[in-house]
# Entry
Amino acid sequence: MEAARSTKEILAAVVQHVFGALLMAVGDALANYGLDRTLDPAEYAIPVIQRNAIISACQDRADAFGARAEIALALANLMPDGYDDPTVTVALRPTIDHRPREHVLTVLREATDVIAAASAHCDKIGAFFGNGSLQHLRAVLTLQRGICTVFSMAFGAGTRITRRGPMSLLITSSSGYVYGLDFHPDPRICLNPGCGALIDANTPPSQTASAPCPAGRHRPSYPAEAPQPGVWQLHS
# Structure
């Protein structure tokens, strides 16, 4: 595994060592498989503690190429199933940080404006709904987690950050993975039981919104003059 120089080599090592051992145990061999006879991982199983250790080792090695997410998806379809066996243990292995020493972030000036606007919006939500309120914490924590992901090296040692929207970012990684960090405002709906109608910011509560209210008057989930509460989410 440590000698692998690409995602392809990591997966090849998994097939060779994991399935090589499983097939040998039943008197078979990888050499007996090919285009005419394919290997179905679902037909095999290993102790879950071993399965998790193998996946962890693969992901750690994939950090060298910024392919942690890619290898995780590939292993989901490649690894055999796992089963609990309390008698099986896994020897501790030395922790090796395979990530490159440097992460180069290129942030366009428009993206810095987006980050500033998002931070300011969180402050406005806190000022209106109260610092530490549910609305404030949801906004702050999701923005924080999103920015932390952008700064992580899960997708490579080079990251380019550009503007995607007034409070959204577009991120392109050196591994080729492209994703967005987007703000999703909460819909303004009626909180009355049995209603849930979507209320436009310009529609007075006494009037019909997207549907009539059983209570006769809509009760908006937040005032029209409030800064829109919401969350930031990552999208590929």
